[in-house]
Amino acid sequence: MKYEPTTILSVVSEGIEKNETGIYSAVKRDGKWIETTIDDFNQMVHDLAMGLYELGVRKGDKVSLHAENSTEWLVIDQAILSLGAVVVPIYTTQPGEQIKYILENSEAKVHFVSNDEVFAETKPLIKGVENVKAIISILGSNHNKLKTFDDILEIGHKKGEEDPNLFDKLRSDVQPDDLATLIYTSGTTGVPKGVMLTHNNIAGNALASHEIFPFDPKEHDEPKVLSYLPLAHMFERTASYIYAYVGVPPYYIDEVEEIRDDFQTVKPIYMVTVPRLLEKIVTGIKVKGQEFSGLKKQLYYWAVNLAEEYDPEDPPASWKWKIADKLVYAKIREMFGGNLVGLNVGGAALSPNIARFMNGIGIYCGLGYGLTETSPVLTGPPVGELRIGSSGKPLVDVELKIAEDGEILAKGPNIMKGYYKMPEKTEEAIDKDGWFHTGDIGHIDEDGWLFVTDRKKSLFKLSTGKYVAPQPIENALVNSGFIEQAVVVGSEHKFCGALIVPNWENMKKRFKSTGHDFPEDNPTENKYVIKRIQKEIDKVNEELSKWEKVKKFKLLKDQFTIDDGEITPTLKIKRNVINEKYKEQIDSIYAEEEEES
User: Fold this and answer.
1) I need a labelling partner for 503 at 20 to 30 A (CA). Which of 132, 257, 361, 513 fits?
2) Which of 247, 266, 285 is the last residue of a domain?
3) Mean pLDDT score of the chain, rounded to an integer?
4) Is residue 375 part of a domain?
5) Do 122 and 246 belong to one domain?
């Protein structure tokens, strides 16, 4: 079905009527879960909107939000939108200079921060940002110039009593084509670009995406979803509107390192994720088998291997699966809380092995595709269908085509209005016929399923003339329990090389199991570590074309991090940063090649 133009406010309001749990959302703080009822949530949205109105926020004004996921984040979002104002979310990991740029470029009138710790890096820079008239701390502050969230609620509550019809009037003035948000893409190159998304861009995308969500809240006694991806990213944010629409409360964790415990406490039926978390979890599941011995170990790995060979079009014999399920899979599902029906994965390519494994153990795992500029979802697997390696089929109202050079082009009601104050960049992204150029390479099979190969800018050419898509190779490498991160290099060289960050925890376990001492001083130069990594690379190379094989590699001791600017907040590699920062290590991979020439 096609959807009539609508607003985010309408989608959320309609969903609140369906919510039978009584809880709008919950957040974990200091180890405790704090649930917020629907009535309290609605009251806070009303009061905060009126409080912001008293601060001078009007339709079209920009309000920035620099905070971790929380119920307050959702309240602030809905309050800003209720005024017809524009939400400008900022990642908590964004560096201070970028935040200053975003505040100035967006002309934000009011700036929200979660606490003094998050505000610390921005504080010395924000004094020069004249357009910011008020800074509000969500959880309180020691800075006397900052207003508090509670103060604004109190001001707004009084305003609501004085003018009880104002809130509803302002909300009714919000139209589908009104700008709802400016999302500054963290990007892997250049300065952040402000993606302009309207209410209908996002609301329509939420409704269309809802059609492919693999769960029905009515089939569960206490439906809950778990959330850890930043709400500043459109994937999680649009998901939050879908949760509201179907009436399921999201539970926001505070530390991703504690997610295994959170699975047990919350017992979610669903979550969205990026591939990296799943890769880590599945690696941990595989390594767990090393704790067993004898027949128990053999059965465990028989079941694991059976799951990794899962094919939705040719599932394993029922008797095999029932045995594996009783002995192994049921226990693995308990690690996810026991109620998890499904996962939707986005943000990057998902290793086919991970997809097979998750579906093989009885947890639906579907891969979707989209970008911030597309609100974000373009494709996903239709309910009841799955094709390993594919990102699914286009959503309702979305059109896709493949350009002559292999680039994926898209049209639909979810395509952004453009980049804020960047008309030239907008023209580069959206051609005269209205097609958005995604920057990704892929193909569509005869049944309409999309397969994404890599970012157009990530492709590189060897000196032999062969083109290499690094991401699939990297995904295969990190599927090893001994490899934490991998970056494939080789542009203008004869062969592919790689920078490898080993999984040191698993490596230490291997040394211990063989009775050897782990080389703490210089593990990257240890011959046994190098030999182990070479063995893992050899396994991957077996499945690659001759020119894609990783012939040499360099080990790195420390992981690539968001704080060091090496990966984005959604864990994508910033290749230009890596190539520059690790030039010496990359050059060493090709030193002999240079000598030969």
Assistant:
1) 361
2) 266
3) 93
4) yes
5) yes
Structure tokens at 360: 């093989």
Query: What tens digit of pLDDT does each residue of 256-304 get?
Result: 889 999 999 999 999 999 988 898 899 889 888 888 999 999 999 999 9
H/E stretch holding 468 reads strand 467-468
Beta pairing class for 250-252 and 23-29: parallel
**Residues forming beta bridges with residue 26, ordered by sequence position:** 35, 251
Given a cut of 90, whether residue 42 has pLDDT beyond it is yes
Domain boundary residue, one of 402, 437, 455? 455
pLDDT tens track for 515-528 = 889 999 899 999 99
Adjacent-strand bridge partners of 197: 181
Contacts of 278 (CB under 8 A, 6+ apart): 343, 345, 350, 354, 358, 365
Q: How many domains does the chain have?
A: 3
Closest to 565 (Cα-Cα) out of 551, 577, 583: 577
Q: Judge whether residue 96 has pLDDT over 70.
A: yes
Closest CA to 449 of 347, 314, 313, 307: 313
> Exposure pattern of 3-37 as b/e (b: 16+ CB <10 Å)?
beebbbbbbbeebeeebebebbbbbbeeeeeeebe
* Beta strands 460-461; 467-468: pairing state: antiparallel
Domain range for 137 is 8-266
pLDDT (0 to 100) of residue 562: 85
This prediction's pTM? 0.88
How many residues are present in the chain?
597
Q: Rounded mean pLDDT of 325-346? A: 95
Q: What six digits make up the tokens of 297?
A: 């170990």
Kindly report the backbone phi and psi dihedral angles of residue 502, in degrees, each rounded to the nearest multiple of 5, phi listed first.
-65, 155
In a domain, 543, yes or no: yes
Strand order in the sheet with 483-489: 483-489, 496-502, 550-555
Cα distances (angstroms) measured from residue 423 to each of 45, 187, 420: 34, 18, 8
Domain containing residue 476: CATH number = 3.30.300.30
C-alpha 264/C-alpha 262 separation (Å) is 5
* Structural Rg of the chain based on CA atoms: 25
What is the three-class DSSP state of 596? helix
- Can you say whether residue 537 is alpha, beta or left, with left for phi > 0 and alpha for psi between -120 and 50 degrees? alpha
- For residues 214 and 383, the answer to whether their CB atoms sit within 8 Å is yes
Model confidence band, residue 597 (pLDDT cutoffs 50, 70, 90): very low
- 375: pLDDT strictly greater than 60: yes
- E strand intervals along 266-385: 270-273, 342-345, 364-367, 369-370, 377-380
Judged by DSSP in three states, 192 sits in: coil
Inter-residue contact 274 to 347 (CB < 8 Å) = yes
Phi, then psi, of 401 in degrees rounded to 5: -150, 160
pLDDT at 104 over 90: yes
| Structure tokens belonging to residue 381 | 């697997």
Please indicate, yes or no, if residue 328 is contained in any of the structural domains: yes
Residue 136: give its domain's CATH number: 3.40.50.12780
Alpha-helical segments (H) within 35-144: 38-54, 71-82, 96-106, 116-119, 123-126
Q: Which amino acid is at 242?
A: I
Q: How far is residue 140 from each of residues 26, 115, 136, 242, 573, measured CA to CA in Å?
A: 19, 6, 9, 30, 35
Cα separation, 477 vs 552, whole angstroms: 13
